[in-house]
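User: Please predict structures.

Assistant: First:
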Amino acid sequence: MDLSDIKIVTKNKKAKRRGRGTGSGLGKTSGRGHKGAGQRKGKKTPYIGFSGGNIPFFRQLPKRGFTARNAKKYQIVNLVTIDQRAKGNTELNPEIMEKLNLIKDKNKLVKVLANKGDKFSLKITIKADKISKKAKEIIESNGGVFECLKR
């Protein structure tokens, strides 16, 4: 099964004719009920989250946290995955990382991280925008070099 195989089934259903006498079931008030804003013309449909005039749920919740507008978002690359995928390479930059499927976009910022007890066996030059202290120690202990990209 594929998304292209799915076909939307529509029924040939005619719109209900309102205000055509009491026998139609939608006569007199035309399905709008008696009195109130819903009965009158020009009534707007309520916005998403409208809960019958009560305070909407999202306004009852407290405001929490903060999101910086100009925060830098890094693509994270782990030393373990570099060790597995970059065998035979002497240099690793964002273009090569993208080809090895370590990152998704070579134009976005890249940060190299390391977990406790990571085993890293490559002597490699890594070019990235940022690196953790632990990752830098591990790379340099194997004779590798880290170069910071200024972008």
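Second:
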Amino acid sequence: MKYVIAIIQPHKVEEVKESLNNAEIYRLTVGDVQGYGQQKGFLEVYRGSERVRMVRKVRVEIAVNDDFVDSAIDALCQAARTSGGKIGDGKIFVLPMEECIRIRTGERGPGAV
């Protein structure tokens, strides 16, 4: 089992969701986040002082069984990439997932994903 985290552009959420559904991945969690990477954020001047303003992104989290890892990554890359691919398209992180437990039934392991 793996835990896949993708940081993507906000306007790509619907495309990512549709692409994951086409790959038979129906469960995901989405949240608004802020940060910066190679883009370095935006320099903002407020009352004479400068500060870096974070870039708005969306964090997509998916728990998948090992058989679905590659198809999840492919679906994310295909849907989240802008035309021509640009800085700021996002990142995907794949982490090992030790355990998954379905609260309603107490089921554990790959069947609970």
